[in-house]
Amino acid sequence: MTRLASLRRRLGARIGAKPAAVLAIAILAIVLPFGLDAFWLTTATFVLIAAIGALGLNVLTGYTGQISLGHAFFLAVGAYTAAVLGGTARLTAAIWLPAAGVVAALCGALVGPTALRLRGLYLAIVTIGLVFIGQHIWFNVAAISGGPGGRSFPPVTFGAFDFSPGQQLTLGGLVIDHNGLYYYLALIILAAAMLFIWNLVRGRPGRAMQAVRDREIAAAIMGVNLARTKMSAFVVSSFLAGVSGALYASYLSFATPGQWSLLLSVQYVAAIIVGGIGTVWGALLGSMVIFALPSVLQSLIPQSSSGGLPIDDISSIAYGLLIIVFFVLEPRGVVGLGARVASLWSRVAMRGGKGGGLSEETQPLERREATWAR
Amino acid sequence: MTAFFQLLFQGIALGCIYALVALGFTVVYRASKVINFAQGSLLLVGAYLVSVLATGLNLPFVLAVIAAIALLAAGCAIFQMMVLQRVLGQPVFVLVMITIGLSIVIDAAIPAIFGGNARILGDPWGASAVHVGGVTFNWVRIWTVLCTALILALYFVFDRFSRYGLAMRATAADEEAALAVGVPVRRVYALTWAIAGGVAVVGGLFLAGFPGSVNPSLGNVSLRAFPAIILGGLDSPPGAVVGGITIGIVEVMASGYAPGWLGSDFSAVAPYVVMILVLLCRPYGLFGTRPVERV
After folding, report:
1. Residue in chain A lying closest to B279 (CA)
2. Over residues B62-72, mean pLDDT
3. Residue A318: half-sphere exposure toward Cβ, Cα within 13 Å
């Protein structure tokens, strides 16, 4: 019994939450596609794909404190790598998907050194420049991007099997369609990435990143190699962005250069802030809010009763208002909301005579957030 | 050579608009360390306000502009007091996200209310111009330069000699110390937003002047003004002016002289290229303050 308990504790420490909760979420994620119609399954797939990229941004911004608004650029680099290798050169996804990450990571390694000279919002605005210079390239180099009209992106292919619309996989009576295939691929990649990042941030490199975030000079004095730490944060972040961008474009199957805009970057930043900055789960939680919200709003607003106003504008207005209201009411994001619910729950439990106080999980989290972002 | 002077004049006029946008940014940034991503959207609101007051309500143009400045300044101050002051003390990121939310709302609300088509501004200048030695000086551009000079002068006098200007500088230097000696910091924040709103009206109206028009894409100018504020230094109003005019000239010159192999519309990214080059040499811009770091 004690062995089992200690195993559970260790397992819990490795995956970041109580094993039962993680298991429940994993099972829920696996059975989810069978309970959703095509519209919501598509939305869920986009959320998972975006969460991979958001996780990357959380390494850079949340854990290392380097504010970047250039994520759209790295997503685009990954997407166009996939387009050139998978579409033009007709290679399999087993090659272009990792390659998308690697090429984006190389771009990240080129941009990384600027972070050694620039701090805070100056870095943020230089990375905005990256988005615009990137868009200039995409609009003008038609061989890569198809020019202003856009280009088609290859479906994920493994050998003879491909994920294009109409394809389906039958596993012991269960039919997984085109959307489901992308869903599970994204889920597997996201789970692997979360495990990797979770281990990374609790190890030596992750501690170094958090030290750089909290007090850069103090970290340098204690022997943290600033150049190497910031570079590796950029490389990991842009690798995940590249993979996410490649999957996103492949799932969309067609994209124009205009899509890799500053707004996309802003959505990613919003996602990690909403979900919880410097947390592994925050990337997923935030992506659920930010990237599923337009679909939710679209389904909530009846097409007929829009009073003559364009439906896109109404959902944008609602989206912006929700961002404002959300941050005014709960500046700490979904994780803050969770902490609030947890403390409320423990208070209720205490009143019921079960004991408790503040949940032990929430306390270090609050402390971590208090030291961040001065 | 005539072409050069023509471009130079256009560059200076465009630079003046950038300087106004950049001034709006730096005033807010200096006091509260918030980059106001909604500044471009405020410009958009300003241009539409002037257009509605001048052509819809048929007010005289000068009166319409003054009324628009008053309305938008009041609106911004109210937004600051009602919304942003609730999250004072939270990480700056939260406030920045709220300004992004505001800009999403405005950018969607304007076309929803007024439609996607361009409106006329109702300005008295139109396309009229004076010609001196082959160079065309559009009246709207001449007024852009004059009004910008006037507003900047007013701002610097206000900042240097008035009681609230002093309060603004004190808040910028050290918020806690300012609070301790009785500076009404909350009112200063509201004031900075009011200034940002008032300046945005003037920027927006000149941006919409000939050959432009009042249309929903006016707000994009704020993205092109980022290089201007960074070039001058985020927290330096004089830097905003120098940066704005420099970027305006760079952009117009690039549109006139950039070789074809750089791709079409290179002038739109030229400011960013210049900005990155400057920042690699001077990481806090030309006039920004280098923070003293304590461990």
Report:
1. A118
2. 91
3. 16
Are the Cβ atoms of A310 and B111 closer than 8 angstroms?
yes
pTM (predicted TM-score): 0.84
Residue to mutate among A327, A334, A371, with most B CBs inside 10 A, is A327
Q: Is the peptide bond before B211 cis (omega within 30 degrees of 0)?
A: yes
Residues in chain B closer than 8 A to A117 (CB atoms)? 279-280, 283
Residue A105 in contact with residue A235, Cβ under 8 Å? yes
Looking up tokens 């389906």 gives A168
Q: Which of B215, B245, B257 is nearest to B111 (CA)?
A: B215
Do the strands A254-255 and A174-177 form a parallel or antiparallel pair, or are they unpaired?
unpaired
pLDDT band at A4, cuts 50/70/90?
Answer: low
Contacts 24+ apart (CB under 8 A), A299-303: A299/A39
* Chain A residues 313-332 with a CB less than 8 Å from chain B: 313-314, 316-317, 319-324, 327-328, 331
Helix (H, G, I), strand (E, B) or coil at B36: coil
With an 8 Å Cβ cutoff, is B263 touching chain A?
Answer: yes
Query: How many angstroms separate the CA atoms of A298 and A266, rounded?
Result: 20
Interface test with A, best of B230, B287, B294 (most A CBs within 10 A): B230
Mean pLDDT of the region A244-248? 94
Phi, psi of A254 (to 5 degrees): -155, 135
Calpha distance B91→A120 (Å, rounded): 13
Tokens coding B92 = 């700056």
Say how many C-beta atoms besides its own lie within 10 A of residue A253's C-beta.
12
- Say how far apart CA B140 and CA B118 lie, in whole Å: 18
pLDDT at position A103 over 90: yes
Which chain B positions have a beta carbon within 8 Å of A319's beta carbon? 104
- B178-237 pLDDT per residue, tens: 889 988 888 899 999 999 999 999 988 888 887 778 888 887 777 778 888 888 877 788
Put simply, the answer to whether A313 touches B284 (Cβ < 8 Å) is: no
Interface of A with B in 90-129 (CB under 8 A): 114, 117-119, 121-122, 124-126, 128-129
ipTM exceeding cut-off 0.85 for this assembly: no
pLDDT of res. B238: 84
Interior CA angle at A18 toward A16 and A21, to 5°? 105
Residue A56 has pLDDT above 50, yes or no: yes
Q: Taking 70 as the threshold, does the pLDDT of residue B119 lie above it?
A: yes
- In the numeric block, which tokens belong to residue A131? 């988005």
In eight-state DSSP terms, residue B289 is: P
Q: How far is CA B161 from CA A81, B156, B187, B194, B238, in A?
A: 57, 8, 18, 19, 16
Phi-psi region of B241 (alpha: psi -120 to 50; beta: other; left: phi over 0): alpha
Which residues does A33 contact at the CB level (< 8 Å), separation at least 6? A41, A44, A176, A179, A180, A183, A184
Record: contact B101-A323, CB cut-off 8 A: yes
